[in-house]
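The data layer described in this paper is built around a simple, fixed record for each protein. We quote a single record here, exactly as it is kept in our systems:
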Amino acid sequence: MAENIHDVQIDPRNLNILISVNGKLTPRAEAMVSVFDSGFILGDGVWEGLRMVKGGVPFLREHIERLYEGAKAIFMDIGLRPEELVKCLFDCLDANGMEDGVHIRLMVTRGVKATPYQDPRVTIGKPTIVIIPEYKTPNPEKSEKGLLLHTVNVRRGYPDVQDQKLNSHSKLNCITACIQAANAGADEALMLDPHGFVATCNSTHFFIVRRGELWTSTGQYCIPGITRGNMIRLAKELGIPVFEKPFSLYDVYGADEAFVTGTFAGLIPVRIIDGRPVRNPLSTEDWSGAGPISRRLSAAYKELCVKDARRSL
């Protein structure tokens, strides 16, 4: 049976981690927020997923910039300068003695409300800032076996309904897509845009390789992925033709290679999409692992993560 991308071995060290709640370090079992918190009541907030690599966080500036850009878009004042938030982040990581192999969820909500109601004007106090670091690394079997994707009928919508570029706590469309894919026995959902072109997956970004070219969506119906952007940049540096363009499932089914990207797992190859094996239409060979372009990009991305890991903006 297919499993999710975050299917990992439970690390016993995580049972005793300290979680930062508004700057206060609290044992995991005791960390909590109010039932009147905007994030709990309405999903009103923004978040980032980050990784710790060799003592630093790769692409730290890009992650923090995206967080503040999202907060600005929903008219939310985070309440800390970016440098102060970064200090809170590393205070938490250092208090846990963490250096490598760590996944971090950094969440900011509008804060506690006087009553359960959507109007931001009933919010009292400062925003709620939570930092959860965990020892968490991708399951290597995912890269070895490849993912199964299933195209769902849940669409990535127009920006005048809810802009898909916003990395908000409101993720119900992605959750329902994920459920539909899981019920179909897939690892991840492939989601289309309102026009029927391929947009992205429910929790990752999607790429195909066709006849030596790397294709991904226009980016108009997905969050501005940091790993996605780095893959595009690395492809250009490696001399791989890369295109951000509309394309359909027809193009996907005829692709030579396919993979998904994300902060947690980097690049993971895709083996089957809607029951169709990922391979050149003229090939009858069984899937034997990531293709040559996928392998080159994955290796280059891992090197870039180590090179870019930093502790300050």
About this structure: Residues 292-308 form the longest helix (17 residues). The radius of gyration is 20 Å.
